[in-house]
Sequence to fold (215 residues):
Amino acid sequence: MNVSDIKQLVAGGESQTLEFKRKINFPEKVIREMVAFANTAGGNLLVGVEDNGAIPGLRNPEEHDFALQKAIEDLCVPRMKYTKELIPLSQEKSVLCYSVKPASRKPYYAKEKAVDKYGRAYIRVNDRTVRASREMTQILRRNGSKKNFSFHYGEKEGVLMKMLDMEDSITLNAFRAAADISMRTASSTLILLVLAGVLEIIPGEKGDLYRLKNI
Fold:
């Protein structure tokens, strides 16, 4: 990748597969972007690029790289696989590009501190990194298995299908209330129907939506 490639990439703006960072001031937060790429469709993290697309570059890229590599080792679960490239802008400044492929086994988690036992899963929604819901995390984890998922069509599933006859999509809370069931039962029902290929989940910052697949 050269300067022209970087400019062309940046011209399209941030997206589901592209994130800009001016510097690595808070590596524990930058880790979330990489984890989200791994949990979604992969992507590139460009360090030395402003949110508005300006490319000031980094004067000491090795310092930023060291901070981020340390955070990847300490805060990513499991250990993150990625490639790194240094793109010179001039004799004094460069841009760092970290490329992450979608993980074959998901989810990846980002911890807040190295001593933490557990982390949180993140995903990309358009050009934003958001925390994965409990349901999305379960779907990511179980989608990697070779198990065939099936379900029993009962009363609550009937309520769900009637709701989706009237609405394009529903929320977990709306389904729980309409079916008059516990949150846990509503959650497990929606997760199973997604895994069985009946529904698809549309993650969002304000909550997930569920709709019939292939509509």
